[in-house]
From TrEMBL:
Pfam families: Dioxygenase_C, PCDO_beta_N. This is Protocatechuate 3,4-dioxygenase subunit beta. It comes from Nocardioides endophyticus. Residues 97-125 form the Intradiol ring-cleavage dioxygenases domain. Belongs to the intradiol ring-cleavage dioxygenase family. Keywords: Dioxygenase, Oxidoreductase.
Length: 257
């Protein structure tokens, strides 16, 4: 097995790519890169698993025959509260994350299935591949879902996830984040992305966050603290809007356009 790179080596790779991107910004034909780079060498596995061939053309109607389906009655409103899925209270900072799903013109995307998954307050997932020595919280699974309302608003009550180590390089830690999936009206429209928390000291060190090379684009993945969402003696509040199209679109993974 090859020796893992140090954080300093990794950060130097990240810096070199951002300098190159910044320099390209001065060129007349520059276009801002607003999505995740599929091939981003500091994120080691991206090199191994990004698509190398053109997307397979599929008949959307054919896919509908075997893709997952759901109806509005399948989603219970209680599934948006990740703190009530077990008999006891989960450990950590209770918080509400809310925002609107809109198109590029600010129109609400209604009755949209929004799914989230996340680590617990200690940065541990309930997953057999996550074996790092942080505690599993018996009262927290870390998965929830809801439908946006008529105004395109979603809302989750959950626990603030902790940062966690991963094996990309030596001493690699992910900034705290929540994974989001938006289902669209068909399975072929599914979008997946991550939401982060303001001021995280791990942003500069994280090759997944940095794989969106445009600083303004990656900042759109960062929620804002909103004291109007915070509730008295109950939960802190964060706001994060998701824009599906246009120049302020929220960056997402696996964009094949
Ligand atoms: Fe994660």
């Amino acid at each position: 097995m090859s020796q893992l790179a140090s954080q300093a080596d990794l950060s130097a790779e990240i810096d070199a790519i951002s300098k190159e991107y910044e320099a390209a910004g001065a060129l007349p034909d520059f276009r801002a890169e607003t999505n995740t780079r599929l091939d981003y060498p500091p994120y080691r596995s991206s090199v191994l698993r990004h698509p190398t061939k053109a997307p397979q053309q599929a008949d959307p109607e054919g896919i509908e025959l075997w893709a997952p389906v759901f109806g509005q009655r399948d989603v219970d409103p209680l599934e948006s509260d990740l703190t009530i899925q077990h008999r006891g209270e989960p450990i950590g900072e209770r918080m509400v994350v809310t925002g609107r799903v809109t198109d590029g013109d600010g129109r609400p995307v209604r009755h949209q299935l929004v799914e989230i998954w996340q680590a617990n307050a200690g940065g541990r997932y309930i997953h057999q591949r996550d074996q790092h020595p942080a505690a599993i919280d018996p009262h927290f699974t870390g998965m929830g879902r809801c439908l946006t309302d008529a105004d395109g608003t979603y809302s989750f009550t959950t626990i603030k996830p902790g940062p966690y180590p991963w094996k990309n390089h030596h001493n690699a830690w992910r900034p705290a984040h929540i994974h989001f999936s938006l289902f669209g009206t068909e399975f072929t429209q599914r979008l997946i992305t991550q939401m982060y928390f303001p001021g995280d000291p791990l942003f500069a060190l994280d090759p997944i966050y940095q794989s969106i090379v445009d600083p303004a684009a990656r900042e759109r993945l960062v929620a804002t603290y909103d004291h109007d969402v915070t509730t008295h003696e109950w939960a802190t509040g964060y706001r994060w809007d998701i824009v599906l199209s246009g120049s302020h679109r929220t960056p997402h993974e696996e964009d094949v356009a």
